[in-house]
Specification:
Blueprint (H helix, E strand, L loop, with lengths): L1 E2 L19 E5 L5 E5 L32 E4 L5
Parallel strand pairs: 2-4
Antiparallel strand pairs: 1-3, 2-3
């Protein structure tokens, strides 16, 4: 599911993903933004693009307060 913007007022929220260390926001060429779970790279139990909002997750780890999620342009490879 696309997310408007992580933490954007009035837009859809990704739930726990918004503050998770393993989240990366991916933007495609049309400007849609998606929440990518980096845990999915090492553990198939985690979906690559989880349905949002995520309300419970066994792999959740809080990101440092001053850290911001990485962004990935659609043209870059994973």
């Amino acid at each position: 599911m696309a997310i408007e913007s992580t933490g954007a007022p009035g837009g859809p929220h990704a739930g726990l993903c918004e503050t998770c260390f393993f989240q990366r926001v991916v933007t495609n060429t049309r400007g849609s933004r998606f929440s990518l779970c980096n845990r999915s790279r090492d553990d198939p139990a985690y979906p690559r693009y989880p349905r949002v909002p995520v309300l419970r997750c066994g792999g959740y780890r809080a990101r440092a307060a001053d850290a911001r999620p990485d962004s990935l342009d659609a043209g870059a490879s994973d």
